[in-house]
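Extended Data, panel c. Modelled sequence:
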Amino acid sequence: MSDFLTELQVTVMKKTAAALDEMGNRGGMSVGEVIDRLTVQFRPKDPELALHLAETEVLMLTTELDKSETEKYLKQLVIDLCAMVTENEDEGLELVKAAMETRKTAIEMSNQLSTEDKLKLKMALKNGFDMR
């Protein structure tokens, strides 16, 4: 065993073991490599990576919810996040304006995609970003 690897024996729920196996099989990785990647994701040092991972995690956490539950969850998350980073109403309103501008830009960009690319994007979102 190399200097940077160690053996670890753990007990997890059967669902967790099955999910780790599935993630490993999808990505061509061992369960240990999956655990390494999941652990690194929880401690990124790059702000852009942290943002990307947070957005991806939110999408993954809502895949099993129906549309109304997802909408309710996301709205509450936005409220909670705004409460953490804003100190006054004006600042909160600026965030809402920025969010609406981002939404507008995303819609414009998606309208420029080919039908094939729209389908790929839809499937990627549905399948947790597995682009295979």
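Residues 19 and 31 are 10 Å apart (CA to CA). This feature is highlighted in the accompanying rendering.
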